[in-house]
Each structure stands twice: as C-alpha cells, then as structure tokens.
Structures
1.
Amino acid sequence: MPVYNVMEEVVHNVLQQYENDLRLTCHCERCKDDIMAIALNEIKPRYIVNDKLNPVIRVEHVADRQSATNILSTVVKAARIVSASPRCENAKKE
Ligand SMILES: [Zn+2]
C-alpha cells in the first residue's frame, strides 16, 4: 500500500538525534523499536501517499516548535518506560 505514516520517520529522526540525551539503559534495535512503538501510539499519525511530500512535512514540523516539543517529550516518556523495563535479550541476561 503506498500510504504510510510520516510520523514514523519523524520519530525515528528524533530518536536518532537525541539518543545520547535520553539516558537509555540499552541501545539495541529492539529497545529503540519499542520506544518508537510507544511514542507512535501517543502521537497523532499523519498518513501520506506521495513520497515526494516528505521533506515538506518534515520542514513543517521543524518550523512548528510546539509539535516538535510534543514529539520530543513523547519520545522522552517512551524512552523512560523502555529503560525501566527493557524487553530485549540484553535485559534477560542480567
Ligand atoms: Zn535492548
């Protein structure tokens, strides 16, 4: 289906950009996926059809500081939840 939630990309970018500031107890892909899933459930999705619109919507989000702050605080919240109880293999070993 040529429709996808552009917020996936936005949250992914935020996670990459702030990974070192989130004080994650684990940096594996599984934990980052969990953070993304939790954050994306909180954030209103924006489905788009045309890939060429991506940069426009991203710029719009960067310009809209309120929504950028909301996205960041949602990612921070999700990171705290996952860091408190990681579900990956690394966590089981300890
Ligand atoms: Zn992990």
Note: The two ends are 41 Å apart (CA to CA).
2.
Amino acid sequence: MSKIVLYYSLLGHNRAIAEKIAEREKCEIKEFAPGNLLRVFQISIRKKKLAKKAIKLNTEIEYHDDLIICGPIWARKPAPAMQKLLENLNLEGKNVSCNFTYTQDYGDTENIVRTLIQEKSGVVKEISFHIVSESRENSRV
Ligand SMILES: Cc1cc2nc3c(=O)[nH]c(=O)nc-3n(C[C@H](O)[C@H](O)[C@H](O)COP(=O)(O)O)c2cc1C
C-alpha cells in the first residue's frame, strides 16, 4: 500500500505532525498551500486559488492508496484550505486518515469530514484530533 502525507499548516504544528508521520511510515510528504498570517485574512479571495491547487494535487495522489491528511481546525471546522483539499481531491477508492489539530473546540468536524469523504467514495480510515497550544514549544502533540 503506497501512502502519502498531505498537510496544511499555518503555525507549524501540522507540519511537525506530518513530518513525524512521513518519517514513521517512510512515505512521501507534500505541503498544501503554504500559509502565512497574511493569507488568513485573504482567505475568501483565495478560495478559488486553493481549489485549483487542490485539483492539481490529484496527479500526485493518483498512485497512492492511503492518504494521510493533517491540518488545523478554524472556526470549529477544518480550515478553509483543508475543506478545499477534501472537496477537490479525487478520493474514490482511497483510504483516508485525517489528523486535525485544535486548541479548544472542533465542533462537528468528525461528522462533516466523514460525510464528505464518503460522498466522494473514499474510505474513512481514521479521523483524529490533537489538542495543541498556540505556541509550538508548548505543543502537547
Ligand atoms: C483563524 C483561526 C481560527 C481558529 N479557530 C479555532 C476553533 O474554532 N477551535 C479551536 O479549537 N482552535 C481554533 N484555532 C486554533 C487552531 O486550531 C490552531 O492554531 C491550529 O490547530 C494550529 O495548527 P498549525 O500550527 O498547523 O497551523 C483557530 C486558529 C486560527 C488561526
């Protein structure tokens, strides 16, 4: 089974988690839409760009059976970049694991993401949540 880790990270927690997983699984790793603080505030105009970038990633995941996706919770939901990623990737027949980081509240993310993956004919392998503190140094992950 060929695996690939895809991640989106603004503050670095998900980068660290994704790198650890890729090292453990000895598999490929790919960052989706590198973020910076400015981009958070531009997110609405960036949504079309994010969707295009996500669609492009389909060629990268074509030959991978297992997708391991890491990213943050924003506004009690997957961050917009994560939503665009899940909405635009071709998940048909893929085993999908999602790792989300949050600081307080991840709302109904588990159900939202499970439904989204299943609607796209993907197989939900795991959806997990990791609490982090806003400062990398204090991260409990
Ligand atoms: C715009 C924004 C909205 C956020 N909303 C939430 C939230 O609703 N619930 C929560 O627990 N954490 C929230 N957070 C905290 C993020 O989940 C946390 O910064 C993230 O998991 C860290 O991952 P990263 O270092 O990979 O960016 C928010 C962060 C940002 C920047």
Note: Residues 9-14, 40, 72-76, 101-106, 132, 134 surround flavin mononucleotide (CB under 6 Å).
3.
Amino acid sequence: MKNASPLVDTPISELLQNRSRPLLSYEFFPPKSEKGMSSLQDATEGLIDTHPDFVTVTYGAGGSTRELTFEIATLLRRFGYGPIMPHLTCVGNTEAELHEIADQIFAEGYRNIMTLRGDPPQGQENFEVTQGGLANARDLAQLLKARHPAFCLGVAGYPEGHPESQGHAIDMDYLKSKVDAGASFITTQLFLDNDYYYRFVDRCEKAGITLPILPGIMPALSLGQIQRITSMCGATLPNALAEKLTHAGEDKEAAMNSGILWCTEQIVDLLQHDVPGIHLYILNQIRPAMSYQLARTFIEMTGMERKK
Ligand SMILES: Cc1cc2nc3c(=O)[nH]c(=O)nc-3n(C[C@H](O)[C@H](O)[C@H](O)COP(=O)(O)OP(=O)(O)OC[C@H]3O[C@@H](n4cnc5c(N)ncnc54)[C@H](O)[C@@H]3O)c2cc1C
C-alpha cells in the first residue's frame, strides 16, 4: 500500500445513524485475470454516478489477493468512491501480521473494516487456524478495536445459517459475541428469498441484537453461476428462480435479465420493509447494480407504500 492519500473515511456507523433513506453499497472483488481487471475498471467507471454510500472490497480466500485488495481500494478512491471498506480475514495471518495490516489500513485513512474469519484457501476443505493467528471473526474484531478504537467494524450474518452451523441458537451466540467485540453493523450472506432475511432479523431482535442488518443481495447471472454460489454458501435457490433460468437456456441475456428482475423484486420488497440499506454483490459488473435503480424507479412511479 502506498501512503499517498490524506483522505480519512467517515465511519459507516455514522452514515447509518444519520441516514434519511436506506444506504446503498456495492461489493467489489479483486479480479484474478486481465479480463477481470478490465471488467472491474468498466464497472468502477460506469457506477460512480449511481452514488453508492459506501463500497467494500473482498479479501481473497486464503489471503491470496491481499495486496490486490488494497490496490483495488486505492483505485476506487481515485475514481471518487468513498468510504471504502476493505475486508480482512484471519486466514494466513499471524496476530503480529494482523496488527501490521490494521496499522496500514488506519494510516491510509480507511476507518471501516469488514471483519471476517475467512474461507479456507483453495484446495483446503476446512478452516485451519494459522500458527500464531486467530480462530474467528470475534477475536479479529477484538484485536482491531484494541489496536484502533476508531475503526468501525462490519461483521457477517447468515440468514440461512453458516455452512458449519450447528443450529440457529449457536449461530446467534457467535453473532452476539462479534457484536460484543465491537461490531457496528451486520451484513448478511446472500439470500434469494427475503423471508429468510426477515426471520433472521426477528431472531436477532429476540437475542437482543439491535445493530443495523444490511441485506446482501446478489443477482443470478445464469443457472450455473447461481447453483455454484448457493451450493458453496448454503443459500436456498428458489424453484421459481431456477425455473426462469432454466427456461432461458443458452440465451445468456435472457438468463441475466431474469436474474436481475428477481433481484429487483427482492429489493422493492426490502425497501418497503424499511431496511437500513441494500448491499449489492455486483460481481464487478454494471448491470447487476442496475437492479437497485430499477427498484427505486418502480417504487417512485407506483407510489408504493411501506409495508412496515
Ligand atoms: C458479507 C460477507 C463478506 C465476506 N467476505 C469475505 C472475504 O472478503 N473473504 C473471504 O475469504 N470470505 C468472505 N466471506 C465468507 C466468510 O469468510 C465465510 O463465511 C467464513 O466461513 C466465516 O466467516 P465469519 O467471519 O462469518 O466467521 P465467524 O463469525 O468467525 O464464524 C465462523 C464459524 O466459526 C465458528 N465460531 C465463530 N465464533 C466462534 C466462537 N466465538 N467460538 C467458537 N467457534 C466460533 C463457528 O463454527 C462459526 O460457524 C464473507 C461473508 C459475508 C457474509
């Protein structure tokens, strides 16, 4: 990371507290190829005028794209995005390295970190604690808050349970431990049926978790893509969506349109339920992000009332 920018990001907790409407955020990921980089640059350029309230940049599984995460964050900053929230995971880092990374992030003026345990590196089935490292997101949140109390931390929530989940009650205990460690908000794993989100929010409220819970939404781009992703993260692929994507067959445009329309309907419903924001997994592409604009236009044109 180069220490060139004097910018200091606003904590997302402040944006959430002062919001007059639901926030909009995009997730970018560090691409692995030149073609991927060019798609990211197009998206970066094409989406700046949609004015997301903040953007996030993932941290490659196994820390594989660690430097790239910060390069992409710098690129987004150059384009005028902000605040920018890098993700950070425990995978492959000792505590001493995590301190060093935290100091670098802070020195660069980033004030928000998506705080995660991380997925195992490719080829490794289960998460293994790095020697001298940390075992879970709660411990990483504690480390980051102890090092720089001004950090605003987001943590992950799982409306359908984490793939290693031993049940909703234990999941909720883990989530609560992350909140107690200093998290300011929760972003959910993707879901394609909003009922999972609403039930999750209910369970959180019953467990005394009152932080904003940002729904994470990903448009399906094809049947193969969404089947692969949902099987990895444990989200349910609704039959009705699978049928639409199957019906599109080899027609890539038709499949993408079905996925974006599904996602738009999800967002319309979520906005009617007064969610604190919409976090879009945009897959480094422009069109998936359009679902939010479509949803807002639809609500404005139809004058739809809030449901709650
Ligand atoms: C919004 C979002 C963004 C993501 N971004 C990335 C990314 O950039 N890079 C990446 O590699 N992955 C990312 N992931 C995936 C995430 O790393 C995986 O889901 C990972 O398996 C769990 O991470 P976590 O932070 O939720 O873990 P944790 O909250 O630590 O929980 C994971 C598991 O650890 C155990 N556990 C948790 N807390 C405790 C405890 N207190 N005591 C004992 N056991 C415990 C439980 O088995 C639990 O199921 C993201 C996920 C989401 C939802």
Note: The beta strands are 23-28, 54-57, 84-89, 112-116, 152-157, 183-188, 213-214, 216-217, 277-281.
4.
Amino acid sequence: MVKNAFHLKETAVALYEDQKVAAMFRPLACATLDAVEITETDVILDVACGTGIVSREIHAKISPTFPIHGVDLNADMIAMARHVTHDRPGAFEWHVADIENLPLPTGQFTKVFCQQGMQYFPNEITALIEIRRVMQAGGQLITTIWGGASDFFIAMSDSVSKHVSPEVGKRFLTPFSYKNADKLTEMLGTAGFGAVTRTILMVDRTIRNPDTSIKNEILGHPAGLQVLDAGETVVQAIVQDIANACAKYQVGENLVVPQRTHMFIATAT
Ligand SMILES: C[S@@+](CC[C@H](N)C(=O)[O-])C[C@H]1O[C@@H](n2cnc3c(N)ncnc32)[C@H](O)[C@@H]1O
C-alpha cells in the first residue's frame, strides 16, 4: 500500500474542508487562477486534489466544456470532494489513485494543477513523468509549494513541541519544509517539461473566530489527533500560545497571517 505523507482521517477531512480550505487553500486557489490563463475548452486535471478546491474554483470561474478530473490518494478527501459537488452532476470526475499510477488515458489534459501536493510525493520525478504522460504537448502544469512556514505555524509547532513533544511539534512544519524547490526546474526538464517559470505568491491566511478556529487548524492537520490525545487543557494552552504569538496579526476579530508559496508553471514538450 502506498504511504500517504499527508493522510487525514475522516473527521479531520471535515475540519480540513471547513477550516483550512476556507482560511488558506481557497484563497491560494484563487490567487493561482488569477496568474494563469484558462479557457472553457481546456481539459483540466487537479492532482493531489484533496477536497477539490482548485477544481471547484475553476468550475466557478469558467464552467469548462469537459468535466474537470480530480485525483487524490485519500478516499476520505475524494468522498468530501464528491459530497460538496453533488449539486453539479457531470461537472467533475473524482478518482482515488496514487500520483504514480493515474487511472487516466495518455495525452489528454491541457492544464494540470497540483496545489500543495508535490511536497508529499515520495519521488517527484516519477510523479512528474506520470503527470506528463496524461498531458497533451503544449499543455501546462501549474504547481504551488509552500515557501517556508508562516509565523502562525511556527508558533503552533513551538507550542506543540513544548506541551506535547518535539517530534509531534516538528510534524506541523512538514508541509512547509520542502527541500527541493531549487531542483524542481531541473526535475521538470527530466520529466518532459520546458519553459519553466518560478514565481513567489504571497497569500493571506485568514483565521476567523480565532477562539474556535485555532483549535480546528490544529485538529485539521494529520498530527492533530496526537495533540487531542494530550487532553483539552493542553489543547487550550497551545491555542493561547498561538493567539499570543500572533497578536500582531489581529485585524478586527480575525487573524490575518501572510503565507509565502512557490508557483511553478511548466509546459509539456
Ligand atoms: C495539503 S493537501 C492539498 C490538497 C488540495 N490540493 C488543496 O489544495 O486543498 C495534500 C494532498 O496530497 C494528497 N496526496 C499525498 N500523497 C499523494 C499521492 N502519492 N498521490 C495522490 N495524492 C497524494 C493527500 O491525500 C492530500 O489530500
């Protein structure tokens, strides 16, 4: 069985969708789509699609002629993607599959999106070769990968390290610890892509109702259950530490914390 380095259990998927997608993944999807030209005749694939926020934003923006395909290794993520799109029959096709073995025909897609998935693939070149296989020549791959942790997640990691354990605390930085950004252009070349552009996007993470949603941010992470096991007093101490560390980001009732991401756009040769 393929190991999923970002595996959320069913309950955490609901928190991911309600909290993290609203706070960060949807704004990132919108910022990415602002930077890319897509048309309704594009044939679109969203890999490591999670609950499908990139696909949903594309559908809202251009209503493509062809169904948008989304693939994720986690069946619970795909179940949520199906659930939140059931009112748009025929618009999406969702697949549970590993990036290294896509259940899709060769040479089909003109745009492939991979939002915050690359850092979890066990072998980027194998993943990129498989993505290239399903693309048309001249198609574009658009991938974003966090460029370092924001102060919010540094505070979360520090506090979990103090109250739970350094091992669990470190896990909260995993999504932001991708080491191969400087090698990705070369890896894309090896996998059959060219004309690679690399830019930085800054996107705000907006944490509404911090009293309740900081806890949901913790529990919507794959290591969240280990924090929950430490008990409610510990959870509340961590929430308080994070709120104190991020007080300078208070805007009205919300916390608004900037987050840096790499965006690579590459053309299938
Ligand atoms: C941080 S989430 C991002 C999800 C989505 N793109 C979004 O923006 O909300 C990373 C996703 O990568 C998926 N993933 C991890 N390894 C994978 C693999 N080998 N093949 C396909 N999906 C994978 C996880 O299940 C998870 O849904």
Note: The chain has ten helices and eight strands.
